[in-house]
Amino acid sequence: MGQLLITKYNFRDANEGLSAHVRSELARRAKRTHLAVVMGIRSGTEYLGMHSEYFGEVKEWEDQYDLIAHDKAVLTARTGLPSRDVQLLHPELLEKGDTKFWGSAIVGNIIVACSGVEPYFDEMFAWQYAYAIRASVQHDLDKLNGARRSDGVNF
């Protein structure tokens, strides 16, 4: 396999664009302001972590949200499905020891999982991050390719 275009920069870039929004939404709607976000890629059925972000004071967390998010990412990598789909629609894919929580996204081979708030908010943030990462990679690709339309006009 050749070198992937996606780098740790893309994960940090996505966080830079989303972190203020995440903080705002946590304060406005979620049951707490603690959130772990783990981001990586899928290689076969394995999860390869690339970057993590934490919101709120980690020492004040009520649980190990970073480990829960990681477990969601591993489940998503193994099944190729968001953890919600596995938990609620395809429980036959669960293995002994899998997390019982959901809140992850998979876009192509980009995996993001979040933990710390209600599962639907965990999932919302995961999808936002996953698409922001993909947009960052696409932006880098456009810069490499000169971002020209088929008729030769620059975007």
What does this structure look like?
- It is globular and about 45 Å long.
- The protein is built from 4 helices and 4 strands.
- The protein is of the alpha+beta class and 155 residues long.
- A 4-stranded antiparallel sheet has the order 2-1-4-3.
- The mean pLDDT is 93.
Annotate the secondary structure layout.
Elements lengths: L7 H22 L5 E9 L2 E10 L9 H15 L3 H6 L15 E4 L2 E6 L3 H27 L10
Antiparallel strand pairs: 1-2, 1-4, 3-4
Helix pairs in contact: 1-4
Offer a few descriptive terms.
155 residues, alpha+beta, 4 helices, 45% helix, 19% strand
Distance between the termini: 31 Å
Point out poorly predicted stretches: none
The shape, in one word, is globular
Can you count the helices?
Answer: 4
Helix fraction, binned, reads: 40-55%
**Count of extended strands:** 4
Radius of gyration: 16 Å
Overall mean confidence score, pLDDT? 93
Largest sheet: 4 strands, antiparallel
Spatial strand order of the main sheet:
2-1-4-3
**Helix and strand pattern:** HEEHHEEH
The portion of residues forming beta strands comes to 15-25%
Provide the structure class. Answer: alpha+beta
